[in-house]
Amino acid sequence: MRRIAISSGHGLHVPGARGIIDELTEARLITDRVSKILASANIQCVTFHENNTRNGSDNVNAIVR
Fold it and tell me: Which of 6, 30, 45, 53 is the right S-S partner for 35, CB 3.0 to 4.6 Å?
């Protein structure tokens, strides 16, 4: 069985752009939806939403770990 990991990319305290849309909210919705689509195709998917870091560099490092 294939297994993939996906992340919404932005963190709770590193939210990305806000304005017309909220990038953090939309990225998390899309990540969760893609995960469900993959699961329906029998592909195991682990999602990760980062909630602890306070800057972009630490955010990326947390996602990579």
Answer: 45
